[in-house]
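Field reference: sequence -> structure
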Amino acid sequence: MKRKHRRLRTEAELDITSFMNLMIVLVPILLMNMVIAHTSVLELNFPSQDQISNEDELALQLQVIILDDQLVVSDNKGGVIKQIENIARVEGANSADETKTVYDFAMLGKVMQDLKQRVPDKKDITVMAKKDTSYQTLVSVMDKVRSFRVVVAGSVVNAELFPEVSIADAPEIVGEETEEVANSSISSVTGKVKS
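Structure field:
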């Protein structure tokens, strides 16, 4: 006698619990990493001739001029406040002919802190750079004039110095003294930059 075997057809169900467990773990990790990898943007103010009036010329204007051999901190009232000489010049930084300038950013930070104590209400400053100034030097100067690190209640925070940074071209030096250059730089802030 022949037996007839019937095959029972059962539909297989798809078990996605392991996939859901993986997603529950993976999605928060990806979201946390996205927050860490954000790009910070620094807003800059560029001086224009339309914004300048007689009141602005009478107001105190602070400037940091980035020269080849020093950083000069000056204002439009008293001239040069501080000349910060370079720490060193390293010969042959990238090639045989090239020299690398090492600016004293720590001293610049101290000078900015002293200036902030003298004029606590002042929020703007102009950084004047030469055309061949490196990007890293410009950013380092901007960081030092914007804020400084201080310990408050056991944690390190950034204290505000001059957060509104404007950028202008540094005046050209043709056999002039640094103080005369700093005094003439006031005209470059008002839009009369030497070319």
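Note: The helical segments are 17-36, 54-58, 105-118, 135-146, 178-189.
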